[in-house]
Write a structure and sequence with these properties.
The chain is of the alpha+beta class. It contains 10 helices and 34 strands.
Length: 435
């Protein structure tokens, strides 16, 4: 045996598996955003899939305005544009990004702006010593990942926490408005909850108390449902089996709708949780569990990357399913958030047809059948089926939120599903289950 060659092959394999799952780069947003115009601006947002979307106007190099819809995502590490919009605005040529939000204009250093092909991709690089693409190089590709995830909604940008942290920011879910204001402008209302702000990214982290223990968690409106590390959720399930509601993401806990991350993941309703001084009678969370050979490594890499953006090791995230009941004010400069409750927590949010779905590019498919008490909750459907219609409504015209809303209901009701399986049409009636 050639020991030198064997060692080289072993080293290469280890490097490939341990070191070459590469997360998107995290730019430094400190001082990257400057505002002009009014001291505050309030704009409406579209609420879909427990997520916020706002309509913006970008200033093109010729001074004209280019309107686009943006996803407001506190979990983003950069200001993201589709490859096409990145090229249109000349960001790769060193042009600053200029965007108008209501009556306010914000300029962003081009170094904190990334095209979708850079911002959305975890890559496996075979050469661990190689050099990754620059943003300008990545933007030359055709792109399309943003369109796949948002279809049929046309979302072309992501508004990141690095920008939000330059202001006092208000998410008013009851009024469906987003407010940005100069620091010291607003008079916040609600329960005061301290946050730790990473100045590099704008990520806001708070402490979540569950069963006498404290867990650091990011506030991330970009997630449709609270998520915690799989190991944390598994530990809770072992000690508190009654908290387990489903095996497999259902409804808004079908977090990514893009693969096998939620097909067998535990979904929990945690009672008597607290965000600092704010007590919640129920906290819904999922422990995403990627499957397959690289699943565990991808999960570890994700949490390493997420923690790097937070500036500390975090165990989870508080997301839209909890935030939507509040008017949340972020006083980033003083490390404080304020939670004014506007509606009761939705304790029936998972009354749903028990399917874990994939929704990409306007196509909705079945990734798995959710289980309750170890038993599958839908018969007649199979992983790999495409969902063509729900109660006669074609899914191709539905957003993610609309698909999930159509499968929501009162336990005991049924939804009529038109499925496509191996070229054949299959019709089934699927029950709504109380998860």
């Amino acid at each position: 045996m050639d020991l030198k060659s064997a060692f080289a092959r072993t080293l290469l394999l280890c490097l490939m598996l341990a070191g070459c799952i590469e997360a998107p780069p995290i730019p430094d947003a400190r001082g990257a955003y400057t505002a002009s115009g009014d001291a505050s601006a309030t704009v409406p947002f579209v609420f879909d899939n427990n997520r916020m979307f706002v309509d913006l106007a970008f200033v093109a190099p010729d001074g004209s305005l280019r309107k686009a819809r943006a996803f407001v995502n506190q979990g983003s590490g950069s200001f993201v544009l589709t490859n096409k919009l990145y090229r249109e605005l000349g960001i790769g040529d060193g042009q600053p990004l200029r965007v108008r939000i209501g009556t306010m204009e914000i300029a962003a250093d081009p170094r904190v702006v990334q095209p979708e092909d850079m911002a959305n991709a975890f890559t496996i690089r075979l050469n661990p010593f190689g050099k990754g693409q620059t943003a300008a190089e990545a933007a030359k590709g055709p792109g399309g990942s943003s369109a796949l995830m948002a279809a049929p909604m046309n979302v072309e940008a992501v508004l990141p926490p690095g920008l939000l942290a330059s202001f006092e920011t208000v998410f008013d879910y009851g009024a469906r408005t987003l407010t940005l204001a100069a620091p010291g402008t607003l008079k916040p209302e609600g329960v005061a909850v301290p946050i730790r702000v990473n100045p590099v990214t704008g990520f806001a982290t708070l402490d979540v108390s569950v069963a006498g223990k404290t867990y650091p968690a990011v506030i991330d409106d970009g997630g449709s449902y609270g998520l915690f590390r799989a190991s944390v959720v598994a530990g809770w399930a072992e000690v508190h089996p009654g908290w387990l509601r489903a095996e497999g993401g259902v409804g808004e806990s079908n977090l990514t709708m893009s693969g096998n991350f939620e097909t067998s993941a535990p979904v929990m309703k945690v009672p008597d949780a607290a965000l600092g001084a704010l007590h919640l009678n129920e906290l819904g969370v999922i422990g995403p569990t990627p499957e397959g050979l690289l699943g565990g490594m991808v999960e570890d890499k994700f949490w390493d990357w997420y923690s790097a953006k937070a500036g500390e090791k975090v165990a989870g995230a508080i997301a839209g399913n909890t935030m939507k009941s509040f008017r949340v004010t972020f006083d980033y400069a003083n490390g404080m958030s304020y939670w004014l409750q506007e509606a009761p927590l939705d304790t029936h949010d998972l009354d749903q047809v028990g399917l874990t779905l994939v929704h990409l590019g306007g196509h909705t498919g079945i990734a798995g059948i959710a289980k309750k008490n170890g038993v599958e909750t839908v018969s007649g459907a199979q992983p790999g089926d495409e969902v063509l219609a729900i109660d006669g409504r074609p899914t191709a015209a539905m957003t993610r939120g609309e698909v999930l809303d159509a499968l929501h209901g009162t336990p005991g009701e049924h939804r009529h599903l038109t499925l496509k399986r191996k070229g054949q049409t299959v019709e089934i009636d699927a029950p709504v289950t109380a998860f």
